[in-house]
Amino acid sequence: MDGYLKQLIEFLTVTSARAFDYISEPWFVYQVVIALALFALARFLGKRLEPKLESRARAIKGHPGLLRLVAATLRRADWIIFIVLLFIAIAVLRSVTWPSRSWLLGILLWLAGTWVVVAILSRIIRNRLVARSVAWLVWIYAALVILGIDERVALLLDNLALALNNVRISALTVLKAAFLLTLSVWIATTIGNFVDERVQRSSELTPSIRVLIGKFAKFGLVLLAGVIALTSVGVDLTAFTVFSGAVGVGLGFGLQKVVSNFVSGVIILLDKSIKPGDTISLGDTFGWIRELRARFVSVVTRDGREYLIPNEDLITQQVINWSFSDELVRLDVPFGVSYDSNPHKVTELAINAAVSVSRVDADRRPVCWITAFGDSSLDFVLRFWIRDPQQGLTNVRGKVLLALWDAFKENGIDIPYPHREIIMKGSVTRAGDGLPKD
Predict the structure, then answer these.
(1) Does 432 fall in a domain?
(2) Is the pTM of this model over 0.70?
């Protein structure tokens, strides 16, 4: 280690001396001035050119990936112009003078070109933070290669190591593992999303099986990518046995809810109790299932709210699945009419009113039964069936009640309302004269 540091110091000393000699030459100043002037010109032209090209790029429809790459390219129009101007300047200088007098411009050309390519291609990654991190790491490595010091930097990072028992962990190994792990996980996630999308399009599989296959494919590919990335840099996976034991203890205490929700989600998918598109009721929540996740289920209600219900609640609590085995749902609408009405006529009118509503299933004819002789009305219940509970229950009940109201008004059937009679018995006399009180 000490010997290598001495060699590194000597290399840096010699390199610094050569760099100082090069900087002190007039042609270095000329190249710096040329580069600054070209960059200023590129910035000016880029600001004028980018809005015009952006208006044409917005005409791209139906290809979001292509539009993202085009937008990333247009945002770096000034850098692209700068690269073109640098190339022209280098060609002119090398035609009239020695190549060494355009060396700095050549380095800037390679660095700028690499940065533009990396910055544009990194836009494939949707996460902005990850995309920027990958772009900077790749560009730094490319810059080291362009400057010719990549091997010396790698040797320095490899000497910065920490020995744990029989395991040697160096800074170079950590960087390689982080890069390969990020790259492999991203590739695995992309492939997993592709497989999940193809599985979701399959009409031969049930919705629950499609979701189950998609989730296991993503999880398995990510796990395989992590193993491949770690083993490719020489990491012995047996060294993680103690760490895995600690993780197991943590799962048993701190992450038991997370594990419980994950296992509950797998059970839900296996027993097919609920699936995307089902209409369910859980407590005061009524809506249809939009998506099944590893930890929760997304339920969208009629008012546009999206509830994220933990999978464990769907296992331990009572859930009403309105479309588990059959989409047919029976609804009851109670009502009352006055005692002057003919109950037979009321029953007929109620059934016809329910049939007139479009969402009521005509194949199963509604029924109407008298249920009680109430205090001020004859009590009935109207029962009918619908096939689309995900479209709402209150709205179809409201339409049936309006149809009942119209039918009763047309046929002179009154809907009573409660009333009370107060009867005063006896008289109250005034004290002393026995006369009745006014």
Answers:
(1) no
(2) no
